[in-house]
């Protein structure tokens, strides 16, 4: 199979895994690239087609449905092929004839000759108009928020949730929606006690992070004469688990918890929802430096294994337990506790392109119930004077401000701390009782953080 066809086959294989097996694209894509022997140069194109198609799925389906006559009975394999082709035609600078020909060949390989003729006819209809022309046609009769949903390819409920969280109107929300559709840079982290920042910055083709003192960003080739791998797995220190792949927003919330002032000696630190282990690796190294032991809890065995791998070279006294944190009992109280709670993930849509289509408004109530339970458990485990860091990778108000407000109302022996002193590089206003990072402003995932101290 020639490389041009291979890149599209990678995208198709990942889409099928996502839609038929509920797989996560960021976990499936590296294996798909390896299985088909895609070169480092062509891996970038395969990645763009894969993630772009997943992000733009709602938009692409609207255009496909306008051009196809039998959408109700369309096989999932054919729809995924059409999505791959339509994304190239509408959102990439690939000549139309090349996009159509290669996608028709893909359809013939995975769905047969009859399907390839159908795909050819639909793609030629799509290619007859630009994306701007399709947008104008499909926007007729829609409300302003429905037009935004079509233009930026988000579910309407997600747009409204993001606008509420970031206090945006339907004009200013555009910058956040656009940022969520941009490919996220690959951020690396020097795990404290496992690698040094100097070692990280000595790697070729990286630049220092914007916000985190532990971070570096992998540079992408900017032209045909610049050829180097952009795959973290090609870095030896990453394969050895001493340097990790982690968004700077995730690094910042872990550092904030580690840096907040606590009176008295440090003995015990706890991560209650540790999988897959990125924040745990930061906290474990810093706990050892502070003279404390470190415990990581994770209820899913496979994710607990990832935590153990992340802590493979970590110093100090540490343990990883496969356990639901709500059932954890301890003979000691903890100085610092991280509650990185399961959430809708609406702040990490750059890195999880399929998440916007998987989540539904009905997911929010059970998640908020779990978040409250985890925070309540943390309040029972933290010592007087200790701090709980409540974190989500979602800005949704029900998962953030409401959770913290309800917790403080029920627990008058806790107070919310000013976040600005522990993250001075962000230049937050004094008295900021929480942190809500913005993908369009900070160029990180949309992390939320509240630091809650037990006072009595």
Gyration radius, in Å: 23 Å
- The proportion of residues in beta strands is 5-15%
How much helix, percentage-wise, in residues? 40-55%
Mean pLDDT: 95
Number of domains: 4
Domain SAM-dependent MTase RsmB/NOP-type: 176-455
Pfam families: Methyltr_RsmB-F, NusB
GO molecular function, one term: RNA methyltransferase activity
Keywords: Methyltransferase, RNA-binding, S-adenosyl-L-methionine, Transferase
Please give a quick description of this structure:
The chain is α/β, with parallel strands linked by helices. It has 19 helices and twelve strands.
Index terms:
456 residues; alpha/beta; eight-stranded mixed sheet; globular; transferase; RNA-binding; methyltransferase; S-adenosyl-L-methionine; RNA methyltransferase activity
Task: Write up this protein.
One of its GO terms (biological process) is RNA methylation. One of its GO terms (molecular function) is RNA methyltransferase activity. Residues 176-455 form the SAM-dependent MTase RsmB/NOP-type domain. Pfam families: Methyltr_RsmB-F, NusB. There is one protein chain. With 456 residues, this protein is an alpha/beta fold. The longest helix is centred in the N-terminal third of the chain and has 19 residues, at 3-21. The strands form two sheets. Strands 5, 6, 7, 8, 9, 10, 11 and 12 form an eight-stranded mixed beta sheet that branches. The chain has a four-stranded antiparallel beta sheet with strand order 2-3-1-4. It has helices spanning 3-21, 25-35, 40-55, 57-67, 76-91, 96-111, 113-127, 131-138, 144-152, 156-166, 173-180, 197-201, 236-239, 248-259, 278-289, 301-310, 355-358, 364-381, 401-410; strands at 187-190, 206-208, 215-218, 243-245, 268-271, 293-298, 318-322, 334-340, 382-392, 414-416, 435-436, 448-454. The chain has 19 helices and twelve strands. It has four domains: 3-133, NusB-like (N-utilizing Substance Protein B Homolog, Chain A, Orthogonal Bundle); 144-180, no CATH class; 187-245, no CATH class; 248-454, 3-Layer(aba) Sandwich (Rossmann fold).
């Amino acid at each position: 199979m020639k490389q041009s066809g291979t890149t599209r086959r990678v995208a198709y294989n990942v889409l099928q895994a996502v839609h038929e097996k509920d797989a996560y694209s960021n976990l499936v894509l590296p294996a798909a690239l390896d299985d088909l022997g895609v070169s480092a140069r062509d891996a970038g194109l395969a990645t763009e087609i894969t993630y772009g198609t997943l992000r733009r799925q709602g938009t692409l389906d609207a255009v496909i449905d306008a051009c196809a006559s039998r959408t109700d009975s369309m096989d999932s394999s054919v729809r995924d092929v059409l999505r791959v082709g339509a994304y190239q035609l509408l959102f990439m600078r690939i000549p139309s004839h090349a996009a159509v020909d290669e996608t028709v060949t893909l359809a013939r390989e995975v769905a047969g000759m009859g399907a390839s003729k159908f795909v050819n006819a639909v793609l030629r209809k799509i290619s007859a108009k630009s994306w701007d022309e399709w947008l104008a046609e499909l926007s007729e009769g829609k409300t302003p928020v429905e037009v935004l949903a079509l233009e930026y390819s988000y579910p309407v409920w997600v747009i409204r949730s993001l606008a509420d969280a970031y206090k945006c109107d339907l004009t200013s929300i555009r910058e956040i929606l656009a940022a969520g559709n941009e490919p996220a840079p690959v951020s690396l982290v020097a795990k404290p006690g496992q690698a040094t920042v100097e070692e990280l910055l000595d790697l070729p083709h990286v630049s220092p992070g914007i916000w985190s003192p532990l971070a570096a960003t992998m540079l992408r080739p900017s032209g045909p004469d610049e050829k180097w791998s952009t795959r973290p797995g090609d870095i030896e220190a990453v394969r050895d688990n001493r340097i990790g792949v982690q968004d700077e927003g995730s690094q910042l919330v872990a550092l904030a918890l580690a840096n907040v002032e606590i009176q008295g000696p440090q003995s015990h630190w706890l991560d209650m929802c540790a999988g897959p282990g990125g924040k745990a690796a930061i906290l474990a190294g810093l706990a050892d430096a502070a003279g404390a032991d470190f415990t990581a809890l994770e209820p899913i065995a496979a994710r607990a294994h990832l935590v153990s791998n992340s802590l493979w070279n970590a110093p100090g006294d540490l343990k990883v337990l496969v356990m639901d944190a709500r059932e954890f009992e301890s003979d000691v109280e903890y100085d610092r506790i991280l509650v990185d709670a399961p959430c809708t993930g609406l702040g990490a849509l750059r890195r999880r392109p399929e998440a916007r289509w998987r989540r539904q408004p009905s997911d929010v109530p059970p998640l908020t119930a779990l978040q409250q339970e985890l925070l309540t458990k943390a309040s029972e485990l933290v010592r007087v004077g200790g701090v709980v860091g409540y974190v989500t990778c979602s800005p949704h108000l029900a998962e953030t401000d409401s959770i913290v407000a309800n917790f403080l109302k029920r627990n008058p022996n806790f107070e919310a701390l000013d976040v600005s002193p522990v993250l001075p590089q962000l230049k937050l206003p004094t008295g900021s009782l929480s942190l809500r990072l913005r993908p369009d402003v900070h160029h990180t995932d949309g992390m939320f953080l509240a630091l809650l101290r037990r006072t009595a």
